[in-house]
Inverse folding.
């Protein structure tokens, strides 16, 4: 055959193989076997092997060896270490070390092709003798490095047992084989990362259970099938671990994680008829999908079983914890027809169970459906109200305890709902939180405060410092200080006219992030208060290391003053603590003269409560507290 014909024959065969759909779909080692066999057959060489560098890169290791002494065109077979099988997949693979064969390693690193007619004498391969060449019976070698990108990753090795002078088409073909191996490797690596990504996107890394996406997919698939066949049923049990937040806050997130892992393990080991999928669908939520478990069956028993395994004490970090869970159950097709409705129904039933108190289980019914629907509707309306900046802010004066003059005021969000009228935060903050709307809500409030400030300024009124509540969602956003500065600048409001209130619970998150946010707010000029003090789990360490300048005592402690001894003692200890830390104290919920008198006597600095004023809409506030105080032009910013 002429050289050019050989060239065409070789490359055509390689193209055919690499485009064969059977070949493409095969596992990597089978592809390598097919490729080495093709190469051996076409080139009439006895041995074709694929070698790779392990991570240490101090050697190359044989991955696949085609031993074609049976297929070889002529002569004595090589004395092969491989068995009679054409391919060897030796459990203890052969390796060649860089330290034993420095010339060879240098050659594969530097040359595109190593064509060796006499391997015994060629300086690049002579070191293989007699250990390898003589033992195996190799005479000529044609080696081609394999690259992945620009990185040398291995070598293809063609060995002939008889003297050979390698032709150009043969060399070109060997390079093409090496390129094909390189493609196979790249494809394999891509497939592996895709598999890893698939795993991450379908499983919860902490428990190894399926995640919400997998659950949704599975429920959709089964619901479709039930609809198509007109038979079968599903029950979805939504399990929400009660008060996990308390454990996280009080004992640390590692303990919370361990509790979740243990509960996951216990649910996994539950033997339930028809159990189809167990998923972790949120921080403290699991879901169990059960097939062909009709209402007539006692799903109640299943619920009891679940609650029972969760209730068994959990030992973590040397302590024994008691945990309970709230369960919501929904059935398809009895309660709903579609996958999405099944998920929503079970979740709504779980919320209902939570409402009844802890450790309850509720089965979805029409009443729950109505309340869930109104919850969803309310969330939709709230989202729109926030987007359209329709939320409002009421202001409640804060007085200095000595002179009883207004020194600042707290901004409190209100929502004027088209059908329901004014709504207090308790009626919609939970929904905002559940809908991931807290950050946007906070920004809406801040914007309204800035607008009111500007409006007052335009009318020549000097407002006092305004105290704005920040949610835990806001204090963990690194951009918050810049956002505050930008909004203030836009409305000609100095940042030092703002104070921020952060609850004890909100400072439990990642310390570095929130310390950064709070410090930058203070740097910008705002003051910080710790809100609802005494109600949460507070670490004195955190309190000390964050830049707070005041403490607000929660109104639940003020309520019973001065008759309740415990409340008196708590309030006194907060006052003492504040003095020790050099912080000012604000008492909230001051409703009576008796409250006022006791607090003033104990040295409380500021007072806030219905005794002085309820939170007021902006116009009413101006009317009541600022009428006739207009000065000409804009007044200077308070210090
Ligand atoms: P908070 O920050 O502790 O606000 C004080 C709450 O106590 C206000 O309730 C206020 O109206 C009420 N209050 C004040 N004085 C008295 C009193 O003498 N007696 C009684 N019984 N209550 C009094 P409101 O406005 O319903 O707000 C409730 C909670 O909602 C706030 O508690 C705060 O945690 C949250 N909140 C309000 N506005 C916002 C906001 O803009 N952002 C965030 N993240 N939370 C807000
Ligand atoms: Ca507050
Ligand atoms: Ca408060």
């Amino acid at each position: 055959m002429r050289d050019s014909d050989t060239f065409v024959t070789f490359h055509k065969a390689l193209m055919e193989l690499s485009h064969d759909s059977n070949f493409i779909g095969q596992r990597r080692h089978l592809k390598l076997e097919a490729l080495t066999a093709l190469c051996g057959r076409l080139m009439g060489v006895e041995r074709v092997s694929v070698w790779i560098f392990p991570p240490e890169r101090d050697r190359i290791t044989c991955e696949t060896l085609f031993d074609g002494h049976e297929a070889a065109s002529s002569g004595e077979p090589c004395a092969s270490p491989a068995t009679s099988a054409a391919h060897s997949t030796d459990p203890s693979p052969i390796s060649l070390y860089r330290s034993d064969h420095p010339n060879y390693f240098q050659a594969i690193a530097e040359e595109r092709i190593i064509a060796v007619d006499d391997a015994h004498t060629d300086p690049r391969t002579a070191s293989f003798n007699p250990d390898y060449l003589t033992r195996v019976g190799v005479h000529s070698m044609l080696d081609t490095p394999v690259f992945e990108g620009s990185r040398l990753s291995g070598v293809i090795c063609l060995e002939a047992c008889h003297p050979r002078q390698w032709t150009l088409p043969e060399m070109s073909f060997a390079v093409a084989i090496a390129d094909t191996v390189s493609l196979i490797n790249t494809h394999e690596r891509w497939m592996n990362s895709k598999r890893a990504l698939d795993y991450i996107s379908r499983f919860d890394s902490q428990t190894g259970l399926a995640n919400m996406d997998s659950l949704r997919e599975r429920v959709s698939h089964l619901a479709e099938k039930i609809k198509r066949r007109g038979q079968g049923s599903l029950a979805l049990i939504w399990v929400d671990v009660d008060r996990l937040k308390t454990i996280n806050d009080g004992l640390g997130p590692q303990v919370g994680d361990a509790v979740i892992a243990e509960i996951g393990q216990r649910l996994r080991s539950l033997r339930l008829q028809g159990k189809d999928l167990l998923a972790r669908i949120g921080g403290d939520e699991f879901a169990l999908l059960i097939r062909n478990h009709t209402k007539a069956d006692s799903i109640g028993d299943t619920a009891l079983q679940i609650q029972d395994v969760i209730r068994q004490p959990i030992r973590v970090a040397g302590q024994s914890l008691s945990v309970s869970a709230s369960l919501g159950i929904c059935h398809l097709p009895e309660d709903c027809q579609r996958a999405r409705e099944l998920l929503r129904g079970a979740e709504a039933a779980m919320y209902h169970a939570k409402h009844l108190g802890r450790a309850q289980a509720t089965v979805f019914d029409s009443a729950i459906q109505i309340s869930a629907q109104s919850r969803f509707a309310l969330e939709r309306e709230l989202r729109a109200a926030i987007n359209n900046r329709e939320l409002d802010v009421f202001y409640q004066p804060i007085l200095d305890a000595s002179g009883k003059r207004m020194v600042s005021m707290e901004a409190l969000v209100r929502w004027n709902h088209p059908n329901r009228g004014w709504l207090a935060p308790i009626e919609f903050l939970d929904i905002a939180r559940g809908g991931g709307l807290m950050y946007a809500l906070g920004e809406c409030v801040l914007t309204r405060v800035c607008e009111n400030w500007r409006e007052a300024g335009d009318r020549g009124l000097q407002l006092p410092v305004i105290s704005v509540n920040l949610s835990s969602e806001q204090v963990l956003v690194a951009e918050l200080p810049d956002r505050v500065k930008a909004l203030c600048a836009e409305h000609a409001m100095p940042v030092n006219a703002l104070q921020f209130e952060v609850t004890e619970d909100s400072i439990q998150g990642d310390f570095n992030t929130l310390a950064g946010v709070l410090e930058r707010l203070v740097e910008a000029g705002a003051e910080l208060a710790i809100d609802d003090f005494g109600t949460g789990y507070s670490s004195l360490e955190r309190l000390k290391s964050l830049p707070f300048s005041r403490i607000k005592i929660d109104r639940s402690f003020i309520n019973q003053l001065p008759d309740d001894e415990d409340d008196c003692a708590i309030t006194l200890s907060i006052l003492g603590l504040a003095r020790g830390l050099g912080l000012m104290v604000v008492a909230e919920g001051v409703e009576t003269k008796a409250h006022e008198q006791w607090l003033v006597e104990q040295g409380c600095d500021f007072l806030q409560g219905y005794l002085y004023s309820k939170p007021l809409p902006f116009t009413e506030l101006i009317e009541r507290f600022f009428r006739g105080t207009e000065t000409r032009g804009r007044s200077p910013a308070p210090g």
About this structure: The mean pLDDT is 88.
